[in-house]
Amino acid sequence: xxxxxxxxxxxxxxxxxxxxxxxxxxxxxxxxxxxxxxxxxxxxxxxxxxxxxxxxxxxxxxxxxxxxxxxxxxxxxxxxxxxxxxxxxxxxxxxxxxxxxxxxxxxxxxxxxxxxxxxxxxxxxxxxxxxxxxxxxxxxxxxxxxxxxxxxxxxxxxxxxxxxxxxxxxxxxxxxxxxxxxxxxxxxxxxxxxxxxxxxxxxxxxxxxxxxxxxxxxxxxxxxxxxxxxxxxxxxxxxxxxxxxxxxxxxxxxxxxxxxxxxxxxxxxxxxxxxxxxxxxxxxxxxxxxxxxxxxxxxxxxxxxxxxxxxxxxxxxxxxxxxxxxxxxxxxxxxxxxxxxxxxxxxxxxxxxxxxxxxxxxxxxxxxxxxxxxxxxxxxxxxxxxxxxxxxxxxxxxxxxxxxxxxxxxxxxxxxxxxxxxxxxxxxxxxxxxxxxxxxxxxxxxxxxxxxxxxxxxxxxxxxxxxxxxxxxxxxxxxxxxxxxxxxxxxxxxxxxxxxxxxxxxxxxxxxxxxxxxxxxxxxxxxxxxxxxxxxxxxxxxxxxxxxxxxxxxxxxxxxxxxxxxxxxxxxxxxxxxxxxxxxxxxxxxxxxxxxxxxxxxxxxxxxxxxxxxxxxxxxxxxxxxxxxxxxxxxxxxxxxxxxxxxxxxxxxxxxxxxxxxxxxxxxxxxxxxxxxxxxxxxxxxxxxxxxxxxxxxxxxxxxxxxxxxxxxxxxxxxxxxxxxxxxxxxxxxxxxxxxxxxxxxxxxxxxxxxxxxxxxxxxxxxxxxxxxxxxxxxxxxxxxxxxxxxxxxxxxxx
Length: 799
Fold this sequence. Notes:
The chain is 46% helix and 15% strand. It is built from 23 helices and 23 strands.
C-alpha cells in the first residue's frame, strides 16, 4: 500500500502543560473548599475545647565570684563556663526545698473554680467567697471538687466531693461543715454562678511548678532566663516570682552556713572561757589579798605573757581544726557544691584551692550529665571517676593540712611545757601567783581572741550576699500559647488546601481508566482518528436517539462528522471500504459509534450497510425496530439468502443485516468462506460496509473480520475503558501484521480531573499529525453549537 493508505504508528511528543495542571485542581475546587471548611470546623472546636496555657518569663543574674580565680590574686586556673553554672543551679532552683518554701508564700490552701459551658476555669487570685478551715488532716482529706450553689442570702447547697452522684445538701452560712474529712465553714455569701472549690497542700502544687524551664539568657553571660507555663497566668507569675525570691534566700543561707557554724563553735568556747576567766580572776584576787602580793618582777611578767600568747595560738589552731573538719565532711558527703570555711580561705595553698574549684565544676557537670544520661552510662561513669580522683587529691591535701596543724599544736604544747618548767625556779609563793596570773591572763586573752573572731565571723556573715539577684520579675501574660487561634486557623486553611489537593491526586492515582486523548497517545503508538463527544441527552438501551442524529448543531454531532471526514482518508485508493468496529469489552460504545458513523455517512448520500457481526449479544436490531429471527448467522449457515435478511431503513437511508439467532459456533461461522464472499459482494454494492463485531478482549470472533477489513476502528470509551485497552490495537497490529488500525475515543466529557497533564506537541510532528481532529473542548461561547456550555459573562453580554 501507499503511505497515505497506511496508518503509521508514530511516537508522540508530549510536554507538560501547566495550564492543564491548574485545570485538574480547579475542576474540583469544591473538594478543596470542602476540605478547608472541615478543617476550619475542626480548628474551631479545637480552639473552643483546648485548655489555654500561658507562659510567663523572668530573669536571674548569677553573682558568684568566678571560682576559677584564687584568693591570692593569682591568675584563673581555667575559663569559667556560665552555661555549666546555670545548668547546675537549675537543679537547686527546682529542688523540693526551694519549691515548697516558695509555695508556702502563696495563698495555696483553697482553690476556687467556676464552671462554664465548655470548661472549668480556676479563679486564682480572686476569692469569690470566704472559707474558714477549722480542722484539716495534713494527708488524709478529700482533694475532690466541692460543688456549691447559692440559694439565698442565708443558705446554700454543697455536694460531697467523695460522692459526685449524691444530691446537694442545704446549709446556712457560718455553719460548721464536716465533708471530705475536713471541718470548715463558708462565711460569706456565694455569688450567682456554678462555683467549685477544693482544698490543697503545698505538695499538690509541686507538679505545677515542675513546668519551670531554665536556660542561659544569652551565650557566655551570667544571666539565666526562667519561664513557667500554667493554665492560670497570674498563678504562673506569682509562682515564678516566689521561686526566684526563695532561691535567692536559700542561696544566701547556704553561703552563710559556714560562718554561722564558726560563730556557734566560738559561742560554745566563750561560754566555757567566760566561766573559767571569772573563776581565775576571783582566785587571783583572793590570793593577792591573802599573801599581800603587789606586783611581779619583769622576768615573771614576761613568762606570763609568753604563756598567754601560746595559749592564744593554740586556741586559734583549734578553730582551724574545725574548718578542716567542715571541708572534709563536705567532700565525704558527696555534696553538689563544696564551700571553703571562712577560717580556711586565707590558709589554703594554691593546689588545694584549684582542686576545690575543679571538684565544684565536675559536680556541676555530673548534674548536667545525669539530666541527659542514666547513672550507668559511659559519660556519667567517666565524670564519676574524675570526681573520685579529685576527691582523693583533696583528701590528701586535707590530711597534710591537718598533720601540719596537729604538729603546730604539739610544738606549742612543748613551748608551754618549757615555760612551765622555767617557772619551777621561782619561789613557791610566786609560782602559785604566776600560775593564777597566767591562768587569768590566758583566759582573758583567749576570750578577747574568741570575741574578735566571733565579731569577724558575724561581720563576714552579714557581708555575705546571695549568689543570684533578680533582674526582671515575672508578670502575667494573658496570651495563650496552647491554642493561638490565628495560627490554628492558618494551619487549618493550609491543611485543608493540602488535603483537598491530596484527595484530588489520590483519586487520580487510583484511577485506572482512560479519559482523554493525551492519555491514549501516551500509552500507544496507534493513531487516533477522532474524538466523539459525550451524547448530550439520555440514551436508551436501543440507541434510537443516536440513529436519528439528534441535535445536528451539537458538539456531539460535529465530533462524529470529524471522524467521518478522517475516514475518507483511510484506504482512499478503494472505491468502497469495509470498516470493522470493535473494542476491548462490551459497554464501550462500539455499536453506538457504528450507528452514528452509518448515519453521518448516509447524510452525505453514501450508500451504507451496517452488519451486526456480534453473533452472541447483538442489540442493533432493536435500533431499527426489527426482530432478530433471521440474520447474518442464518446467511452463513445457509438457511437464508442475503436478500431475505436485508433490512432497508428508508428514513435514514441505511441498509442493515441483523445478527440473527445465536448459533452454537459463532466464531467458526465468521471464519468461513461464506463470510468472506458476503463481504466481497457487499463491497461491490455499497460505498461503506460497517461491521459491528464482538469485543476482542472477551472473545476471538472479531479476528477474521479484522483481517479482512480495509479499516479497523478500535473504540475506547472515556471513563469506562481501562488503560490496558490502549495496548490492544498495537498488539493486534503486531501479531497479525495490520497497518489499518485506528482508535476512536468515545464519550469524551472533558472532565479536567482525570485529564493528562501532558499535551501533544503537533507543531513538531508529534502524534497523529496526518489526520485532523479536535476534542471540541474550550470553544464555549463561540456561538456555533446549540449545547455549548456558556459562561455567565456570555449570558450577560448577550443581554
